[in-house]
Fold this protein.
Amino acid sequence: MSTEDSGLVKIALVSCGSEYAGVQPEFEAAASKVNAKFVYPEIDIASIDTIGRDFGLEVASGDLRLMMARAKAVVEGTTSVDGVFITTCFRCAEGAIVRNEVRRYIHKHSKIPVISYSFTESTSAATLLTRLEALTTIARHRHLLAREVQTGLTAGIDSGSTTTKAVVMRDNKIIGKGWVPTTKVLESAEEAYSLALKEAGVSREEVQALGTTGYGRFLVGNHLKAQLIQEEITVNSKGAVYLANKQKGPATVIDIGGMDNKAISVEDGIPGMFTMGGICAGASGRFFEMISKRLGIDITELGALAVKGIHENVSMNSYCIVFGTQSLVNSLAKGATPEDVAAAACYSVVEQIYEQQLQEVDVKEPLILVGGSSLIAGVPKALGQLLKIDVLVPENSHMIGAVGAALLASGFVEG
Amino acid sequence: MSFLAKVFIYPVNSLILADLVERFGHKPLTIMNQVREKVTNISLDSPPINITPEDPKIGLRYAAIEVPAGVRGRMALIGPLIEETEAAIIVENPPTNFGCVGCNRTNELMKYLVRSKGVPVLEVKYPEFDEEAHDFVNKIATFLESLPKEKPEEDEKAKEKEPAEKEDKK
Amino acid sequence: MAETKKEEITKYIVISSDKVLPSDASMKIYESEFPVTVKETCFGLIVTGAKEDVQAVVEKIRQLDKNHIFVKDRGFPAGDQRRCRASRGGGPRPGFHFLREEVKMLPAIGAALDELEAKECVKEKCKEKSKLKISDLEKVIEEELAR
C-alpha cells in the first residue's frame, strides 16, 4: 500500500463455499485492511441455465455456475469493479477447474487484475493480505507501475525473512548495495541501508525517496518514513522486468526466496495472475542452506557444484526439508558425488515449484528467475531443463525487491 | 400446533415442499431454521451467516477431513436435520440453486445420507408444466398422508428430552 | 436458554392469489394488532416477531386464500443487514433465485391443491353414504379370506 492516500477499491468476490467454510470474515478483514470492499456482481438469473454452454464448461454445482455468470458480468462491464478475487474450496476438483478457467477468462477478456486462491477453514486474513494488497495496488496505481526509468536519488529496502537487501539508485543506475542476514528486522534494515549508502557515497538526507518491501516492510517503512511501502508481488514484478530489460509485453517471474516462493505472470510490468507458496520449506532457500551444510560447503559454492552434477544419479523420495535431506545424505553414504547431490537438490526445489505453483500461472517467455536462490547456478539450469525454456537470471537478481522499491519510489521524487 | 412426522425436504430451502409438508400436518426440516439458529446467536459475529471455522470441524461428523471445508461447513447445518429425519421428500432435477445447496457434492452427500437412513423416502420430479404439477402435488399429498399419524407418547417425550441433553454435554 | 430473542421467528408468505394482494394481506396484519414486523416484497410478505404471534398471523393470512398462499420459514429477520442487497454490495441473496423459480410454479401448485381439495370433498361424501353394514362387512371379510 502506498502511503499516499488511496480510495476505496471495489473487488468482485467470485467464490464458492467461502460463506460455509467460516472464512468469509477473514476475507472481509483482509479487504478492509487494504481499503477494499467486496461486491457481488449482479447477474441475469436466466443466464445461469445456459452459462455452462456459453462458457463451454458444464458443471453440476449452482454456485460454480454463479461464478461463471459473475465473471461474465465483470467482463461485459455490467458490474464495474477494480479487481476480481476468485476463490473456491481447497481440494475441490470441480471448484479448481472453474476457478482456473474463470481466471483465464477474465484475464483474456479484460484488463481487470485478478487473483485466485483456494481456502480451507484455517485460511486467515494474514494469508490473504499480501494478495489483496497486490490486487488493490494494481487497481490503484497503474500509473505508478507504468514507471520504467528510475530518476533522481532513491533507495529501496527489501526486508525479507532470511536476508535484508538495500540499494541506492541514481539516474537509473545502482550506485550502492547492502545485503545482510535478517536478525532483528529494524537493525538489519539499518545495517543493509547503511552499507548501501556508504558504497553510494551519499547521506540519508540526500535520498529523495525511499521504498520498502518484504515481510518487514511496514515496520521498516514506518521507522524510516518511507514514501512507498509495498508488498513484494508488485515490487518484484517491476524489479524483475526492469533488471532483465523486458518491460514491455509478457513475462513470467519466479522468485525463490528464503521462506516462500512466488510465481507471477506479468504483462507490461504489471502483475496479472500469481501464486505464493509458503507451505513447504523444502522448496525454499532454507533447503539449500541445509544441503550446503551437509555437504560442508558455503551456500555460495552450491551452485557451481550443482552445475557439474547430474540429478538423475540421485533418487529423492521426498521434497520435504527433513526427508528430502535424508535421501540426499543416504545417497552420499551410498557413494553419490557431492556434485550429483547438489544437482538433485536444485532439481527437487524447481520440480516442487513446477508441481505446486506453476500450474496456476500461464508460463510465458521470457522466464525471469530472481531471489537469492537464483544465484545458485544449478537452480536456473534445473528449471530450464524442466520447462524446456531458457531461464533468464538478470544481474543483481537477488536485489530484485530493493531495486523494484527504489524504482517505484522515484515516482515520489518531485520535479 | 402439533406436528406428526419430521420430514426432510430436498432442496432444503424449498418453499413449495416446506409449505406442502406443513399443510398436510407434518414438520418440514428446513435449512432456514438452522440458519436462523446461527444468525440470531448473538454470541457469534461471523457474518453473513455466522459460520465460523468451527463449523467445518463439526462437519467432520458427516464427511472426512479430505472433503472440502465448504462441504463440511454446509454439512454442519444440514447434518443435524438428517439426524432428526423421520421421512423425506427428494425432488429430482430442481431448478439451479445457490447458497447452501449451491454445492453439488454436498447435495449428493445429503441425499445419500437420507436414503441410507431407512426412513420412508418419496422421490419426485420437479414439475415443468401444469399437468406435472398436479401429479407432483398428488404424489406428495399421498406420501404425507401415508406417514404415521400418531406417535407413541413416550417416544415423543424421549425426543423432546434429547436436545436438552445434548446441550448439557456442550 | 433463557434468551427470549431465540423465540423470534421470521416467515415468508408468498402470495399467488387472484383474490388477495400482498397489500391486502399486510393491511390485514396491521388491523390484527399482532406485534409483528411486516415487510412487503415483490412476492408477498416477510413477517418477523414472537413465534406464537407470527404463527397466528400467518395462519390468518393463509386462510384468506389457503391454496394460493404459501409459507416458509426464513433464517434471517426482515431487512437484516447481512443479507440486505444494498449493504452486501449488489447481487441478490443466495436463496432469492430459487424462490423466484418456485414462485413461477405456484399457480400450478395452487390449482393442484384446489383439485385435490375438491376430490377430498367427493371422497368424504361418498364415505358418508356408504357406511358398511355388519353383514356387508362379513361378506367382504369372507371374500378377502377366500383369496
Chain B touches chain C at residues 1, 11, 13-16, 18-20, 22-23, 28, 30-36, 38-40, 42, 47-49, 94-102, 127, 129-130, 133-134, 136-138, 141, 167 (CB under 8 Å). DSSP finds seven helices and four strands in chain B. The radius of gyration of chain B is 17 Å. Residues 6-169 of chain B form one domain.
